[in-house]
Amino acid sequence: MNKLIALLSLFLACVGTMKAQTAQQPYFQLPIIPDSIKSFDNRLDYMVEHYWDFADMKKVFSSRPKMAEAFDTYINFMPHATATKAKASVSKFLKSIKKPEDLLFIAELAEGKLYADTALLPSDELYVLFAQAVADNRGVNRNAKMRFEHQARTLSRTQRGMKAPEFEFTTPEGLKRTFQPDTTARVTVLFFNDPDCTDCRLARVRLDADLHTQKLVETGVVDIVSITPTDGTDPLWLNATASYPTSWTVGAAPDIDEVYDIRRSPTLYLIDHKGLIQLKTDNAEAVLSILSAFHPKRTPAAPKHITMNALTDKAGRLFVKFSRYTYSNLGRLFLRLFVGVMFINFGIRQLIGFSELRHVFPTALGMSSETCLILMICVELICSLLIMVGFLTRVSCIPPIISMVVAEHYILHDLMSDTMAMTIDCTEPGYVPIMFIGIYAAIMLLGPGKISLDYFFSYFYLENTNRTETEIIGEK
User: Fold this and answer.
1) 257-269 pLDDT, tens per residue?
2) What is the layout of strands, in order, in the sheet containing 176-179?
3) C-alpha to C-alpha distance for 139 and 135, rounded to whole angstroms
């Protein structure tokens, strides 16, 4: 398909040349490809190599609009020519331009076609030739040259196949480190991003959520280094790093744009085990597509004969698995449901027997038996329901704890005045309030977990305000 488009472009260019020749004042003649060149690729290379042969560089810049059209046609041929011919043609063309203002004009056209965010045919390999030509030209105005000098400096260091430059960065802990590609890993992903950038956050989440990439990082096949172009003391960056994967290397480098080309956010470099740049992109999916071809390292198979050391190793691995794998959210849900069902059971029974208990229920804090019974039923029913669904969970634990403390005080001082709390047996009534106090205290410390209304409402708030949990917690 690309070759078909190129052939059509070549045909239209030739037709345009014939029309220009019939006009009264043709701009300049395009090269006529010899019939002896039969190969389609070779004909394209010939067109690119000799495109400017009939152009008089002292006159063609007299009409900037026509020169811009000719340059646009020239650039459109580039993707279909071989890299060596394209670079040689650009170098030859730039050397033929004598006036600094003409060179600057062409470089600005190339910037729009090859380098800018809106470039239709982006090519850093070709554009660096234009930027370097302006940077090396002493006749170009200093102020106009500065932008191209910066572009040439960063692009000339970060082309595909080049050694990835080293640089210093600061970790969230304030330590100074030097980036060097991990030679023990097959691939290093250098991920330049900004916490304020939405596309950067999406790329970070995509890299972190990919299970295959996670496995590659865990087994040392891939090393991910996340760098933010900011100072190491930036509070916004420090707060954001709390949510970064712990398996990544995270750092801040304020002057990194002087070393690497990071004009787009995010920018990802793929670096091989030799430290050579293999890819530069702003698309995380392109990186994941390449990483999908890699396989995690396999641990060596254990010897078939069973020895005491092998049994010890298996037992150790078993303990590691049992202690490492946790289901904290399910565990907190079970704890909430368990204590809620147990506690609400008392409230239902007291509600059913309200008429019999209203006169004999223990009094507390100067209140009548009926008032104490009503308050206790409300605590047992309402707080239990709130705790089970996980709404205002920590606040809902306070009334049951207070009621159980009062109940324990009543049991120890009125029913069992001669018994110490430490000597209560599990069959005695003073054991139940202590058990409930311990469970409610555990829920207050652990929190409701993610399977709760509390988590749903907090997640909804953070998504709608575009804030992070660390930002809210860090507020005074």
Assistant:
1) 999 999 988 999 9
2) 176-179, 167-170, 249-252, 222-228, 187-192, 267-272, 277-281
3) 10
